[in-house]
Amino acid sequence: MLPLLYALGAYLWLVNLMPLAAGDTYYSVYLLCALVGMLCLISWQPAALRKGEACWILAAASLFSGAVVLANYDLFSPFSALENMFHLVCTLFGGVWVGGAILLWMYQKLPASGKTDGRRHSIRVFFMSFCSIAAIQLGYLLFVRYPGVLTTDSETTISQLMGQQPYDNTMPFWHTVTVKVFVDLGIALLGDINAGVAMFHGAQILFLSACFGFALMTLYQRGVPGLVLMGMYGLYALLPYNIAYSVTLWKDIPFAGAVLLFTTALYRWLAGLGRKRVTGIILVLGGLGMCLWRTNGWYAFAVTLAVLTLLLGKKQKKLLLILLAVLLFTWVLLNPVLDVLGVKEGNLVEAFAVPFQQIARVVANQRPMTQEQQVLLGQIFDLEKMARLYDPLTVDPVKFETFRYDQVDYIRQHLGQYLKVYIQLGLLYPGDYLKAWVEETKGYWNAGYRFWIYTSGVAGDSFGITAAYGEGLFASLYAAWFRYFEKLDIFQPLVSIGLHVWGLIACVLVNFLKKRQEAFLGIPVLVLVIGLWLGTPVYAEFRYAYPLFLTMPLIGCATAFAPQKNKVSPLP
Prior knowledge:
- The chain is mainly alpha-helical.
- The protein contains 26 helices and 2 strands.
- It is globular and about 75 Å long.
């Protein structure tokens, strides 16, 4: 009876979502979730759950189902129609069945036992992974995309390090300094800006390859089966976005590598792998990159330290002291040191992407406002232009075309009044606020959307940087693989931000319910994801979620496997 009931729920779920197959949503992700749920149910065995555990699983499954419905609210509009209400109830019911089946199976079956016997040559795994991945990426740099890929963001970074515009922490200063070290080295050695850019990309490739090799070596030491380990290697080495990003000058790329490095070192520390001194050094290096190469990284690091302190207390005193030292040291570098160097603060507007979108939707829908509200908003926005240019999927038109940048100081001086207006409009028009938030953030908590992932070319030639892109055999092979990957729907789950977010939340929840220390591994990237829910400028920008894609192979395997002799690493 139970399998039939589940099959009915999953069927209704997929049928009601079927119209999405013709749109830009990754319907294949919904299909995958339903099939995995069915497989989980087939191997599921009835077992008693404590009340608290059952409540957490039901709550998570309900959130999953609700997120799918909320992201696709147009399918059920108007909600007052009886037919739409029926479809809504069926979809919610089916989503709870799908999410609940997967979570129950994970809770009951994981972690599986891994084998560590005979695995005594872990350093070989590191070097083989490092060298082969670096070769693939260096080949792409030298034979296909020399000296690399630069966009408008990259152009800003180059402009600052070349002294053509003052340093600004909107493009993180310490990332710009890192780029400058290698660009200056390349220019000094070869006398060419192109060589300097290529030098940085070469260093970035070696760094990312080392991070990937370190993670794979750790999984090998923790007993992850060989076939699974080969699959994880394939994700790091062969996925087009990893190859393309390795030669792209964005702060997001080394930052994501630093998050993976930090998470892997934290895993090793908690699991007691390797020498503590070496692990501690790598933990510090990963933490420095995480805190300095993106502003939100510092906050994610701080939250991780707070959670570890709360749940581990004195049991990991040395670890907590190391992390506290990194946090304080980087705070000094990000605040007093930048003040002394005269580096301007980041753009205040960047922090208000979602509130700006919510206000813009109210304006675009021509909702009534008081004279006082109109005057206050008109001080910082061109409201007429805002109503015309509002794009529900990105704040960029509002931010770049309607915001009056000469009034930033005015916002700071009247922040309380603007907060009051924001709350007032939200209370008057909650539907507009909710829809604006959904459209602006849905790419980070729904199945996924067809949106550009990587690019090519060199933005701007004012610095003498020119693309010398190859067109030979190597270029053809890389291009063929990239096209094949982009066209086939079977690969959509590998680029679905929402699916990876669901997987992350499931892993963190299951590990916490089972009182495993592996739960801590997901905290840094989970905080980064929540930050996107609160302030992303674009609804599905892949590079913003890149740390999630680099850490999920590690977090997923850590959740799924544990050595036989140490199957559970208990929380206090």
